[in-house]
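Hey, I'm writing a tutorial for new members on how sequence and structure tokens pair up, and I'd like a real worked example in the thread rather than a made-up one. If someone can provide the structure for the chain below, I'll link this post from the tutorial.
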Amino acid sequence: MSFMIREAITQNVIGDSATEFKDTVEDAISRGDEHLLPGLGVFLEKWWQNSSASEQEAFTEKLSQAFKN
């Protein structure tokens, strides 16, 4: 089933501009609806797969800092 979700989300955003992606992410976050989390997860997965090791390291460092108490 998760592959169906990935494919559906991918099909919905093919061809979107950087501005449209930013708007989509900001809208999903501002709504706070948990049903939007899988879409953000698909975005993260695609970003991760297309990022360099140094970009991934910077991201995980920032994420680690964001979740510190």
